[in-house]
Amino acid sequence: MAPSTDSKDECCSLYSMSSSRFEEDEEGIGFDGTNEEPETEDDFKDKLVAAMDATYLKAAKARVTALAAIRKAFVSRYALEFVSERRSTICDIVERCIKKGKGEEQGSAALLAAIVCVSLGSGDDTDAIFNELKSTMMTILMDKSVGASVRSHIATSLGLCCFIAGSGSESCDEILESLHTLFSASYFKGNGVAPNLGPETTALHAAALYAWSLLCTIQPASYVSRFADKYLSKLIELLDSSDVELRIAAGETIAVIFEICREARMDISPSAVLTDKLRQLATDSQKFRAKKDRKKQRSSFRDVLKFIEDDELPSETVKFGRERLFIDSWCRRRQYDAFCHVLGSGMNLHLKENDLLRDVFELGPPLPIDEPVQKISKFQRKMENIASFKARTKSRGKQRDKKVDVLW
């Protein structure tokens, strides 16, 4: 592992010069969308360093503002060099804010950890950050005295960090088990009655389920198949949850499970109970549900139903700059949504420039700025899309075969 170029002494000296700016300006320092983007790279770096220094301030509100500014900066630019040079300081900031902070500060720090791992990509630096933060984040994740919204951010961050740095390791197995422990609290009781949970708790369970299904996309098919044998009926019950996000998370997770098992030619077939529930949710028009929730739910479950019944894969095209990303599988959709969740408005920029995202989504090296993109017909694009999916399916099968089998 390459040594970091930063030090705590450097950080302290910079802190003394710039911290007062945050005490006076609670709106941030140029990364929150209210001010203009820094005009130069040096200006960008100076403001980022000032934000990092401000995470050492005594006022919790100032620390939260500083964390938000850092996150905004790393989302708005692909700052690989900056993050790599200051990895240990950034890791220290995240760990301290998660351990000693409260509420919003902890959640913001957790999301920052995920964005840092996305910026660094796979490699020794990301592995080091993941190993340093995992224990602290796991402790907070399972601590019932911590607010559910904070734990939701922790679950999201752990899932994505593990996806980038911890696939195939014992750490990944431990995180999978902890995430399942969380969302299994929403499983129906033995008498078929749903547990009585508040909205923040069900939001936590949905976040845990999304993170768990993300990690399933890089697990051996045998792991996913064993889980399906044991718990698929429980996931199907979650389709009756009163929370729309948990229903959608359950439906899309079921689609991921079926896709992985079908790719591996494992014996899995939908029950009449499953297809009936999916059909009902895909056409739900009950007035007691909010109109926005009904629309979101119907859209998701129409796609899930088509896949479960007819093996029809999702088909979406994301345009960014002069390029297109084809989302043509449930695993790929889950991965895309996970990155979107932490990158937000910066997703397209990172698709253009970030080596990790271009590798995950098989986009190839970033396009030269002046290189024209040759237009192709819709038919050619469709044929290339089909060929690409077949190649990915074959590649994923080989990768899963190489992974060490773990017992549930």
Put the structure in a nutshell.
This protein has helices at residues 8-24, 41-54, 60-76, 80-85, 87-100, 104-120, 124-141, 148-165, 170-183, 199-216, 221-237, 244-263, 272-282, 291-310, 330-343, 347-353, 355-360, 378-402; strands spanning 316-320, 323-327.
Distance between the termini: 32 Å
Question: Major sheet, described briefly?
Answer: 2 strands, antiparallel
Helical coverage, percent range: 55-70%
**Low-confidence regions:** 1-29, 31-35, 402-408
Number-wise, the strands total 2
Pfam families: IFRD (PF05004), IFRD_C (PF04836)
Protein name: Interferon-related developmental regulator N-terminal domain-containing protein
Domain Interferon-related developmental regulator C-terminal: 354-403
Biased composition (Acidic residues): 23-40
Tell me what the structure shows.
67% of the residues lie in helices and 2% in strands. Among the domains are: 186-312; 316-364 and 379-395, no CATH class. It has a two-stranded antiparallel sheet. The protein is an all-alpha fold and 408 residues long. The protein contains 18 helices and two strands. A hairpin with a 2-residue loop joins strand 1 (316-320) and strand 2. Mean pLDDT is 85; it is low at 1-29, 31-35 and 402-408. It is globular. The chain has helices spanning 8-24, 41-54, 60-76, 80-85, 87-100, 104-120, 124-141, 148-165, 170-183, 199-216, 221-237, 244-263, 272-282, 291-310, 330-343, 347-353, 355-360, 378-402, and strands spanning 316-320, 323-327. Helix 11 packs antiparallel against helix 12.
